[in-house]
Structure formats: C-alpha cells, structure tokens
Amino acid sequence: MRLKIASAALAMTLAAGTQVNAETLKFAFQGTYNQLDPYSLNETFTMAMHGNVYEGLVRRTADLQIEPALAESWEVIEPTRWRFHLRKGVKFHNGNDFNADDVVFSANRVRAEGSDLTTRIAADVKVEKVDDYTVDFVLTGVNPILHSEWSTWYIMDKEWTEANNAVKVTSASDTNPNYASLNTNGTGPFKIATHEPGVKTTFTVNDGWWDQKVHNLTGVEFTPIGSDATRVAALLSGELDMAFPIPVQDIKRVDSNAGTSALTGPELRTIFLGFDQKRDELTYSNIKGKNPFKDVRVRKAFYQAIDVDAIKAKIMRGLSEPAALMISPFLFANSGDFSRYPYDPAAAKALLAEAGYADGFEVGMDCPNDRYVNDEAICQATAAFLARVGIKVNLNAQPKAKYFAKILASGGFDTSFYMLGWTPGSFDSYNVLLNLNNCRDDKGAGGPFNLGGYCNPRVDELTKMVLSENDEEKRNSMISEAYTILNNEVSHIPLHQQGLAWGVSDKVTLKQRADNEFHFKFVVKN
Amino acid sequence: MFGFISRRIAMALVVMFVVALISFLLFRFVGDPVNQMVGIETTPEQREALRQRLGLNDPVLVQFFRYVLGAIQFDFGNSYQFKQPVADLIGRRLPATLELSFASAIFALLLGIPMGVYTGLNRDSWLSKMFLSVSLVGISLPTFFIGILFIFFFSVTLQWLPSFGRGEVVALGSFWDTGFLTISGLKAIILPAITLGLYQMTLIMRLIRAEMLEVMRTDHIKFARARGLPNRSVYYIHALKNTMVPVITITGLQLGSIIAFAIITETVFQWPGMGILFLQAVQNVDIPIMAAYLLLTAFIFVFINLIVDILYVVIDPRLRTERGRA
Amino acid sequence: MTDNTPTVSGSEASEAPRSAMARFLDSDLLHSFLSSKVTVLAAFTTVVLMLAALFAPLIAPFNPFDLAQISILDARIPPIGMEWSDSRYLLGTDDQGRDLLSGILYGMRISLAVGFLSVAFAAVLGISLGLISGYVGGRTDAIIMRIAEVQLTFPAILLALLIDGIANGIFGNIDRETWAIWILTFSIGLSFWVQYARTVRGSTLVEKNKEYVQAARVIGIPAWIIMIRHVLPNVLGPVLVIATINLALAIITEATLSFLGVGVPSTQPSLGTLIRIGNDFLFSGEWWIAIFPGLALAILVLAVNLLGDWLRDALNPKLR
Description:
The complex is a heterotrimer. Chain A has helices spanning 2-18, 44-50, 100-110, 158-163, 228-236, 251-256, 296-305, 308-315, 345-354, 375-387, 400-407, 429-437, 457-468, 472-488, and strands spanning 24-29, 58-60, 66-68, 71-78, 81-86, 126-131, 134-138, 190-196, 200-205, 219-224, 242-244, 260-275, 320-322, 362-368, 392-398, 417-422, 492-505, 508-509, 524-525. In chain A, strands 1, 8, 9, 10, 11, 12, 13, 16 and 17 form a 9-stranded mixed beta sheet that branches. Chain A has a 4-stranded antiparallel beta sheet with strand order 4-5-7-6, covered by helices on one side. Chain A is built from 14 helices and 19 strands. Chain A starts with a helix and ends with a strand. By secondary structure, chain A is α+β, with helices and mostly antiparallel strands. By secondary structure, chain B is mainly α. Chain B has a domain at 91-289: MetI-like (MetI-like fold). Chain B is built from 14 helices and 2 strands; from the N terminus they run H-H-H-H-H-H-H-E-E-H-H-H-H-H-H-H. In chain B, helix 8 packs across helix 10. The two termini of chain B are 15 Å apart. By secondary structure, chain C is mostly helical. Chain C has helices spanning 5-13, 15-25, 27-35, 37-54, 56-59, 100-136, 138-152, 156-171, 176-190, 193-208, 211-218, 223-259, 271-279, 288-315. At the A-B interface, helix 1, helix 5 and helix 11 of A face helix 2, helix 3, helix 5, helix 7 and helix 11 of B.
C-alpha cells in the first residue's frame, strides 16, 4: 500500500514535469476527504466527492432535478411496486459490467449493519431482480418520494466487492479497514489515482464513461485547507483553480482580484434557533422552578427581538435570505404564503412583560463556531439583540465536535437555547416536519433532531398524512397547515438560508449546485 | 556506569508510562468520538451499539491496559476519521514535520549564532541593539499572525512563494517523501520554516550573546589574549567553542517546543505533517491519533533527554554521583 | 521560638540576604536603568499600558463586554481619518460593532490578568517545589524532578489543549465565561513552573551547605523558615528575570490558544482573541480589526521583554 502510493507519487512528479498540466483542476475545500467507502459516512462533502467516482440509479442535474443515471427509466407499476430499467453497456472502472445483480447487492449493502445511509432504502423494502437489466422495489406502503435521496445511493460492483472481501460496510468501529474504504471501483466520470486522507487526493479521467463528457480535464488534484485565510490566499495567488467555501467577507476581494471571481448562490440549508420547551426548568437559566420557553409569548419575543436584516447586511454581507420557514423556499411550492414576524424590540419587550419577565432573565446559548457560515458571529449578534430587550445570553460557542456531542440526543439534548442548521436530505418538507418538529421522547425517538422537544400532536398527525399522500396539491396543503401551526407557536426561530460562496479562477468554468456539491464533470478549463 | 544507564532507562520508561496514563485519561474527557464517526441522522440506538463495539463502555482501566499493550507492539489502533492504522498515518506525516523542523532549526542556527556572537562582542553597538530589538519583535507577535502576514505579503501581494502545502515531493525509498529535491518543494518550505524558526532564532541569539558575554570574562580567554593570540581566533575558536555546549543542550531540549509550535505553523500553511494531523484529531475527537501523537512527542523528548544525560556522564565523570542521585 | 529566631539567625545570616537586597537597590542597578534609554522607554510603556488596562472602565469610551451597548449596525467602521469613519470610534469597530479602542483596553486587561496570574501560579508552584526538592533532597528530590521531566514533555500549547478538553468535560454545564480564564491561567502556569523549580533547586543546593544555614539548622530552626528566610532572597533575581520573560510568553501563548479555539469567549475578547477575529478580515480590506490589537500586543510584549532583558543583564554580577 505504502509502496504503491510512493511510486504513484513519483510517477505523478515525473509526469508533471513533462506534460502541460493546464487541464488539471486544482481545488481546495475546508474539510478533509477521509475514507472511500460510499456507505460509511453521510456527510455532504464526502458524498459529493464519492459522486465523481460512483453513480446512483438516479442523479441530480445542476439545478437539482432528478434525472436518469444508471437507471434509464422507471415506472410505478403498482402503488407499492417501482420498476427500474437499467442502462445497458455501462462498465465499472475495472471493466466489469454493470447489471441488476449490482443493484440488488448495493441495496442490501446500503442497509446493512455499519452503513451510515440506512435511511436511503427502508428496511422493509424488497428488492427483486426481474432480469439482468430490470429491478423491482416492493414497498409496504405508498411512498411518492422513494428515490428522492437516491442520487447519493451509489451502486457498487458486486463481483469486485465480494472478491476483495469488502461486503461488510467499513463502519466507524471496524478495526481493520476493508478494501473498499481504501480503493474505489465506480462507474463515474473520474477514478481515484492517489489518496492520502487529510493531505491530497488525485483523480484521473474514466475514458470509458457511458455519458457524453462536458469537461475537458485530464486530472483533478484536491487539497484540504482548513484555514480560511490560507485557502483564500492560495486562490488569489493563482495556486488553485477553485476553492470553497469563501468567507463572505472575502467575496469582494476574490471578485476584485484579477483572475478570480466568486460564485455565489442560495444554499438549501436553513439556519435557525431553537428553545428547550420540554424540561420543566431550564438547565441554563436564572429562572428556577419553571421554563419560560414553554410560554409562546417568550418565544415570540425572542423572535421579534432579533433583526435578521441587520445580520444579513452586516454579518452575511448580503449573502443570506431571511427565512420564514424551516425549509428553503426552493423546496416548498407554497413558501410564498408565509412571512416572518417583523423585527420589533418594543413589541418583544411588551411580550416579555406580559409573560411576567419585564426585567428579562438569563439564559445559556449553545452555538457552533466552525460549522455554518459565520455561526459564532451570528450568535454574538443574537446575544447583543436580546441584551437590548433585557435578556442576558451566556454564549457557549464551541467547535462542532464538542457542540454536537452536547446538544444532540447522545448528549441528552443538553441545551436551553441553541443554533442549528438543517438541509432535508430528500429535499422535501416531510423530512423537516419529522426530524425537527415531531414530538420526541427523552432518547429522541419520534423527532430525533427536535432538540428543544417542541410537541403538537396535530403536527405529528399531519406528518404521517404527508408521507403517504400522492396528490401533490393535497400534500402541499397539509404541509402548509403544519407550517402554519409551527409559525403560530414559534416552534423555532428560522433565521436565514445561508449563501454558497465558491472562489473560481477565470481559467475554469463550472456549475454550482445549491446543495453545495461540487462535481468535476461540469468543469471546463482553458 | 552500566548501573547508572540502566537506572536512567528505567526512569525514562516510568516517565513514558506516566505520560501514556495521563494522555489516555485526558482524552476520556475530550468529547464523544461516536458523534464524529457517524452522520447526523444516525439513531441513538445505533450510536450506543457503536460505543459498545468500540469498547468505550468498558472500565477506563481496561481500556488503558488494552491501549498500552497495543502501543508496545506499535499498534495504536485505527483512526476514527480515516479508518486507517494510526501508526501508518503518523509514519506518513512524520517526514513532513521532521523536514520542516530541520529547515527551521537550520534557519535559526545560521542566523542566530552569528547574530549572537556579534551582539555578544559588540555589546553597545548600534547594530547589536537593532538585532536585539528586531529579534524581539519576532517573539512579540503570535506565530499564527506572523504566518498570515507572511502569506499576505509573499504569496498574495508579491506572489513569490506558495501559501500552502509542500510542493512536489520525491519518494526516497518507501518510508520517506522529501520536498528537498524539487524546486517547488524548496520554495514551499521557506515561509513555514521561517515562521517556525523565528522564535528559536531569537532564543539562540540571546543565549549565545549571554554565554559570549560571560565567557569573554573567564580566565582562559583573558590568558589567551594575554598570550597575544589575535582577537579573531580568540573570539571564534575559544569563546564560541565554550558557548556551544549549553547551546546544543538547549537546542536539543527546544525540540519539544518546535514540535508544539509546528501545530500552529502547519495549520496556517496547510503543511501536511503531524501537527495538523493532531489538531484535526483534537477537533474531531480522534482519540487514537491524539494519544499516539502525545506518546510519540513524549518519546522523542525523553529519548533526547536520556542521550543528553548519558553524554554528560560520559564527558564529565564528576557528575556521576550527583546526577545519579538526582 | 518565634521570638528569638530573628535575633539569632539575623546576625548569622545577615550577609546573604543583605547582599541580595543590596544588589537590588544598588546604585549600579539604578544607574544602569537610567543609562539605557531603551529600558526607560520600555518601563514607561509597560507602566502606561498596565495603568490603561487597569483603569480601562474609566478611560474606555464604551464597555465592550456589555452586549446592550453594541450594535451590529455599527460593525466594521474604519478608524478616524478614513472614509466612512465615525467620530465615536477612534480606532474603528470590529465585526460585531464593538469599539476597537475600548476592546483593546479591556482586552489588554484580560491578557495581562491571564499573564500575571499564570506567572504567579507558576512561580509559587515552581519555587515551593524547587525549595523542597533542593533542601530535602533524596527520594523527594528525585520524584519532583521526574515530575518536572514529564511536565516538560507537554509544551504549553499541548497542555492547554488537553486541559481545556478536560475542563469542557467537567465544567461543560457551567457557562464558559466563568471558567475559561481560570483554565487558561492554570494550563499556561502549569507549563512554566519547571523553570522556576530547577533554578531554585540549583541555588538551594548551593546555599544549604553554607555555614550559616548549617548553623541555623543546628540550633533547631524549622526547615521552612530557613528556606524562606535564607534561601529565597538569593534566588529572587533569577526568578524575577524568568517571571518577566514568562509574562511576555504567557500573553503570547494565550493569544495563540485563542487562535486554536481554546481561548477566552469571544463575547469578552482578550487581545489575542481580537487578533484572531481580525485575522478573518485581513484580506477583505478591514485591516484595522487585526492590526490595532496586533500592534497593542506587540508593543506590550516587546516592552516587557526589553525590561526582562535589561533585568537579566543588570542582575548578572558577572557582567558588571
């Protein structure tokens, strides 16, 4: 293994000396690309990187529409039976043919123990091979969004995986990493040439790719650069063709620099604040014996005390969209019917007084400082806004590892007031209603990411109806009803959808996807 | 003699054991590794099963002895983030850190020694005062800030030197990738090496200066002068030679702080060494990497200490009883 | 017993402490101080900065720690003299709309507090252990020196990362503002004590065999009194030098730790935290957010270092 990497690196060095590497794309991201097993970690960047090598039955276009990939077409032949017709003539990187056995195998593996993507296909779904190029998925109930998360369910080669003893998913706890977490064999447009996690990963082109290629690259070189300043500097100085994310304050600099520009757009992630509404007494507060957040007036007062437009102008530098809902307007057709409560500190003070807190109170706030765009700065500004209506916020901003360990179910939902961001993996409201707003027990069953424990039985009921409703219009009105309840009861304070900011050299053109996935296949370098 | 050395080795082993225990215990509190290993949608039941499989629910002592047993066989377990043996990961990153430390030490010595000699000999000259003040500026600003300023001027504004990485590396055998053999590799090491070496340079310069000032007053230098030896040979041969012993000792012992400061330098310049690996491990609660890193730095430190101690005894037998007791 | 010790030991031991004190107040020292313009300037700067930090609440135009006084709408206003500046903010504002001048004054307070407290902690711990180690000797000495060796394998930065991690585990439930400073002080101080211990131990070894100490021991004066009365004054010089240099180092270390994300909370920034925040705005043209606190830190540390330098030379009898 070691030898192979060394000699490959040497080969790269020699090659770089002779050929003009104008078509090698060099890019950097904030985080690292670790293991290569496509089922081991459900994390946006990792999944996007896998997506250059592996492909799913379906994929998403640059504007996130579902389109055929390894499946040429599909039909719902009965309400609970979906039939997928597979693309013929597709080969894996090692030359093996792609066929129905690979799909059945992958469907089992993605749901197996150790997989982090078990939600892609429910455990009770039966996957049946009809012939070599036809596969049926038999459901136990109607599900109109069965394939909505399948653009990141990548198909693996059955023969290759079995031959290399990699059938068992490399889970977090495996003491011996299996072959698939160190090597890849997909059907996608790129192959991994060298991979040194945390240092560098290089890709070469898959010349046998089944689809028409748009890119003109001969290779890709990825380096993780954690420090914002260094990443921006490397882009500005021309050492990189592309870097992301670009801190919002540096967008102007990247734009004004000769040879680079910033590509910005709305992201699907919604940033919001949440309250502990479940405990009878807040863990971090000077109010004892009761929980002020159980009173909707207090929650609404917090909502109206925060000026999201000022946050947008001063912290996000215009690169955010204040949100009325817990989901991006791009993902819900009726979003236009909703609007935010206005910023009104006077009204907030009145609401607090009405609720019996005229002199305000103290509350501890949990916030990450390396997860979302300017997360800590937003929390600080929130603390300052609340200070003006008499609420003293004790801010506890931490790196994401410690932060998530504290506030999630595994930490016992140990928070009174927190910031969180959420992108529904299925791009659909059902995911938002279930995960963030359904009643939960102390372990998190019910609504696992409803950290504050907001609970309204009608919302739960609507959520269940939404899941099995096939009629688009009826479904949307059910979702609207649920969001109206959430809005009236201020279950959370939606703040904004943060913006995406990629720094791009003028030498390349590419497409930016709103889910922040970077696909090399759209890159043209001149 | 043999008894003394074996006693020192036994002591070193005890120190290592204590370091292992401390670092292991510390990490029990750093955070929950399970959160880092799985995605956000993993259920509490799956998380609990994972804890069980990782042995995180066993008594701390059991976990510790399991760890020590492995460490003795160079098995530090697998990294939670990378799913690869920690020994491999560290082994692959070690050359980058050692080359950076080496380059920064060379920089510190090449500049620090002449400046130290000069300021020691010309105590009141204008240039000496400038050397002293300028070198003080180097330790009056935090390393990360100096690094960023360097990048700002030399990479972004002037575009002379790269802002990140090691450039192209060449494999020497299967264990060592070196950046010293390519132009881009040499260019890449300049900024990080200077950033890391500034502090050591100041330290060495001031140490040499102080030693020079003292040595110049000792009798044998006075005699040498009295014997009519030319000034230059007195300064450089006799005086400097006498200052070297403490300098070498201190430089050796400073290795610990070079390795610690490499964490910051590597982070700023995205230098793919052990320091950045360690910091990523801290942020991601990757306990096996953190523990192995601490053990390794402790080992390097204890090892050097041991060598220094033994050398002392070899050179100066009078120290035997005194140090043997200590 | 306490009645007659001073008279008995006083006459016997007078030469040692007196010479140390004498060295301290020697006119040579004063002369050497006054003759070095750089040192006078450094001392003056240090005193001014320390007073400014101490009386920050009286001098500063705003209280940057009071969130109700900060408005995000005032964020990133440039310093006076530049376009878009605001007469209320002499040095401009940071990304949260905090007045930078006030931020620097209050931040210096925190930096100096962490510096002084950690140095005091290290000195007390190191001197005590050094005295005990040198005076008692034997097994105690061996154990203490072994602990010192283990300690040296954890440089300040590593140590602070580790201790912060533990503190988070233990005090995670209490809000960070209350314990962050103490944890920083503790971990920075802990990494400095070895230097004091080794120095003090060395002097103690020399001192304890001198006749006056032997004599005091013979007439039954308790060991701790001997140590405090007779040994301590002799090591004050070197300890003071180490302390000065450590003060500068502690302030820098605190700043560095803030960069690594284990510093004081950003709602109550130290100089280092201000620089860390300002770092993010260097490329976007809002240079003042990093440069002004950076200058303040550099001047403070430089002045303290220069004082330490002078002190080291002045107190070194071999150089006079």
